[in-house]
Amino acid sequence: MTATVTGRRRHAGVEVGPILADRSFTLHRRDLVRYAGSSCDYNPIHYDDTMARAAGLATPIVQGMFTMGLALTLVTDWAGDPAAVVDFGGRFPRQVPMPNTGEGAEIVASAAVVEVLDAPLVRVSVSVRLGEARVLTMPRVLVSLA
User: Fold this and answer.
1) Are strands 133-144 and 85-91 parallel, antiparallel or unpaired?
2) Which among 27, 24, 25, 23 has a CA at the least distance from the CA of 102?
3) Residue 68 near residue 136 (C-beta atoms within 8 A)
4) CATH of domain 17-27+63-144
5) CB-based contacts of 95: which residues, under 8 Å, 6+ apart?
6) Domain spans of the chain, in order of start
7) What is the per-residue pLDDT across 95-116, written as a single tens digit (0 to 9) for each?
8) Cα angle vertex 124, ends 17, 134, to 5°?
9) Which of 4, 8, 29, 134 has an alpha carbon 20 to 30 Å from 100's alpha carbon atom?
10) What's the burial of 28, exposed, middle or buried (CB within 10 Å: 0-12/13-18/19+)?
11) What is the dihedral of CA 69, 75, 78, 80, to 10 degrees?
12) Integer distance in angstroms from the first to the last C-alpha of the chain?
């Protein structure tokens, strides 16, 4: 018996180019605390002003893996399966500051297919911006499609 995966993007017909419209995420301090709890990343530089300043930061900063996880939702939504991402890596050229103003920080993620490999693989590039500054670049996202 063969199971058919429904809703999963097929490799045939995939072309180089943007995969979805840019996606905005507005983050607040409470989101960082929640993420800290779910990821067991209790480093206080992500939610405590005093500890962030003691570490040489002007304000707490968003967890890098939180930023990366949000950005990867573009890819998993496009692929139709969270397990489709088989490899990823990136770098964080800038931090995302989280001042305690209540306004939050808006980051914008974008993604594009940069290479169609032998089936079922494609390479996707993902980036995240805070204003005009890139805060995450992920030139290495490997996706396995149906």
Assistant:
1) antiparallel
2) 27
3) yes
4) 3.10.129.10
5) 57, 61, 62, 135
6) 17-27+63-144
7) 999 988 888 999 999 999 999 9
8) 90
9) 134
10) middle
11) -70
12) 17
